[in-house]
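Format notes (please read before filing issues)

Several people have asked whether sequences and structure tokens are stored in separate files. They are not. Every record keeps both together, in the order shown below: the sequence lines, then the token lines. Line labels are part of the format and must not be stripped during preprocessing.
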Amino acid sequence: MNNACENGLKRRDFLVTLAGGLSVGFLTGITGRLFGAGAVTTTPVNSYVKVGSDGSITLLYGGSEMGQGSMSGLAQILAEELMVDWKQIVVEQALAGSITYVTGGSSAVRTNYSPLRTAGATARELLVAAAMLATGDQTRSSYAAASGKIVYTPSGGGATLTWNYGDLAVLAAGTDAQALLPAVIPLTNPANFRIIGKPVARVDIPSKVNGSAIYGIDVWFPDMVFGVIKHCPTIGGVLAITPAKPAAAIAVVPCKASDNRGAVVAGTYNAVAVVASNTWAARNIARSLSVSWKLPTSTTNVDSAGILAQAQQLLTSGTPLVAESSNPGANAPNMESQVASAMTGAAKQVGGTFSFPYVAHATMEPLNCTAKITFSGSTPVSCEIWAPTQAANWVVGTAAGITGLPATAITVHVTMLGGGLGRKIEQDYISQAVQVAMVVKKPVKLTWLREEDFGHDNYRPMALVQANAGLDAANKIAAWSYRIVTPSILGQRGWLPPGAVDSQAVEGAVHLPYNLGTYITEWVSSPAGIPLGFWRSVGCSLNSFVTESMIDMLAKTAGIDPFVFRAGLITDPRAKAVLAAADSLSSWRKSLVAGHAWGMAIVQSFGTWVCEVIEISQPVAGSLKIHRVACVVDCGTVVNPDSVEAQMQGGILHGLSNALWGQMTFTNGVANQTNFNKYRMLKMSEAPTITVQIMPSTAAPSGTGEPGVPPSAPALANAYASLSTGKRVTSLPFFPGATMGGL
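Then the structure lines:
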């Protein structure tokens, strides 16, 4: 609860003192400049770059750092084109504005790679132009940029001149330098990269080690108050009457519900915030506070048994939309008939019904937001927000809608995130903090208790899938039928045009690398009384489990090694190369000890190919031991191989935890899992050995934050089906209802 900090004892100051010797020359942008010594002035050269008088280069980072390493990766891209050494780079978290972006969809490097290369190269050329202004010689070939210096060698002979970037910064920022920019900004030949592709030290790690990094939950001011949110336990319930303020509380504030972009729903209050002198006090008051709620008239759509029954009915009687087929011109009934005919003619058939529960984000840092509003009388004048958010610009819109202030009067500070996984794109916790600050007229840090975080998440959707496939006499796929029933994330947000297929619902089931013969992939939308959200790899974590399980079932039916079977169906050269590399990397599978088994899966998501091979055993019934994972990844051009490896490892562990135990169940609208004691996670002692191989590539960078997740569950299921039991798991999680024991 950070109560020690709230009472004036700053634990992080203690940690900084203890670990002072660990500090190195990088800046996270939240805690202050660590690079260089003495007073340093910085000059903005363009939207992304500031040049310091000490020669340091500051990257204004527009994303959210939640452990994925993009803060460092983007800095590497900039450093490459600016021709500076890594030790000269400083990273500063940008305020919400023109260069900030939503962090999600494994997009940070792949969408910013080209813009940042251009920004770095432009800044370099502006510094060269400043040197031209200093000498009066505009012969570009007479100037060279290296190691943070511009060196001028006159073409006709004469003394060589050298400037540090800091000496030229002011000139470089002027309009005269802009006028000297070349029409086409030259970029570095990738063959000459010095920093891109190298495992440099991440800029966010030192402050996390020494305790100086500021997460949202660490924000503190001497005059701030502290709020804890309390929702109706039943999803969809609203406040019947605002409870009286307990004597120990500063305030009890009713909070309006908000949509997914933070706009409040007029007249609909779905929570109260208890405000006190510290979080612990607010928490205790909130837990004991008696609140009268008005419950929804029906909870059918928020009850696990009812949801499953409805999905089963829709699987057979629902009206499907065709997401993809072998004959794009055919309608659903016509295409279904074609597939049925091809299936009848197949020599061998496999199929199954696969089911998935709702799952929570379960981030380590619960939702929190600090809001400070300045008033003139009762009129808001400005608003400042500190939040672990994945969508800073959305926060501006949320605050503007509540306060009535223009965007120019709203400042958003993005703190470090103790996990995001898609949950911290949402605006509900931001909206509530701003609403409370409007009422109490003091800086407020609002925190969700863990029970609120689990019970009122924006969950990954449930799904029910019916898949069938047939092989011809040559063991090639002759027919493929795939229908998924799942609610629509985009539809719930009003982002899906009528009659359109939700891309999130079918990702991982379309554009498969295999020749599927005559095939159809369909989606049936199901009602969603439960809030939905983007979860690490979203629909691909559902559909890839089915598709790769089905391919494994076909391989076993054909009596062909899973690698060999897939290789015979895949034509994509990158996929084939990843498959071959994984075959080699997992050569250990050919000599497993008795009682052990292996399984594999290959999936493309966010532009990245990942193949995983998993070795397991079953020491006792009802358990699994995961021994090792071999992972091969092709993510195009690699910026930092250490970060890619770490993201693969993290994605695999996340995927395995979810496959084994991840589930949220609901009874009459109330979540049954409200803390980690009933939401089992993989323990460190249970983590397998993971070996990652990164494929060399000259393709454009693709995502790495999420692609490690989708192959892990099907590879695990395929390994489990190869154990002596031979049982095929088609419903996740493997072990529903598991708890964390003594936790």
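For reference, the curators noted about this record: The radius of gyration is 28 Å. DSSP finds 20 helices and 27 strands in the chain.
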